[in-house]
Amino acid sequence: ILNVEQSPQSLHVQEGDSTNFTCSFPSSNFYALHWYRWETAKSPEALFVMTLNGDEKKKGRISATLNTKEGYSYLYIKGSQPEDSATYLCAYHSNSGYALNFGKGTSLLVTP
Amino acid sequence: EPEVTQTPSHQVTQMGQEVILRCVPISNHLYFYWYRQILGQKVEFLVSFYNNEISEKSEIFDDQFSVERPDGSNFTLKIRSTKLEDSAMYFCASDSGGRGPQHFGDGTRLSIL
User: Fold this and answer.
1) How far is CA B91 from CA A9, A47, A110, B7, B24, in A?
2) Nearest-angstrom CA–CA distance, A39 and A107
3) In this structure, are residues A111 and A93 in contact, taking their beta carbons and an 8 Å threshold?
4) At B43, phi and psi to the nearest 5?
5) CA distance A5 to chain B (A)
């Protein structure tokens, strides 16, 4: 069983606040770390796929960093907006297969 | 933008009955997956499929489960004799190279009574 943990479980911020979440994953047999954004009643939407230690990726106000040696990734949202409200999932991809191993997600609520 | 489509969106079935969940992956993708999420739990991998055969499966994917790509566009998941614990949201996904972002459908909510 591969342990992918996300924290916090949920987060409630005000519009304009910046926020960040953590994903921890096994540092052995690492291939990639995926971040998804999942709105209720929709399909999970791929945000980033990160493979190299020290990787930093950015998409608009959302960015992510990766530390494969210690097995963690951070997702940052700058200036949160109500439309950022969603569950953010991370998924570990090992070098021995195709399966994504998901964390339980961080549920973000941004209120005006 | 092309997307993965799943039907039905909700399926209610009596325990012991067979169900078939259907998916149309993105047309130029070569790798196909099924995942499920039991309410309140993590999204769990079931199976991956490439070149008309299963490439990887989890412990959940026992003999009650099977997958098929019958006609080059559809990708189906069959549960032969459903149990109460099969109630979950089932997601289909596809990707082009087996290592990139997987593109998910909206899911089928399966309720076993």
Assistant:
1) 22, 18, 27, 10, 12
2) 10
3) no
4) -70, 130
5) 10
What are B10-39's pLDDT values in tens digits? 999 999 999 999 999 999 899 999 999 999
| 3-class secondary structure, A79 | coil
Closest to A91 measured CA to CA, from A66, A55, A58 = A66
Separation CA B59–CA B45 (nearest Å)? 9
Q: Is B1 on the interface with A (CB under 8 A)?
A: no
Run of H or E including A80: none
Averaged pLDDT, groups of 10, chain B, 113 residues long = 91 97 94 96 96 94 94 92 96 89 96 96
Inter-chain touch A100–B102, beta carbons under 8 Å: yes
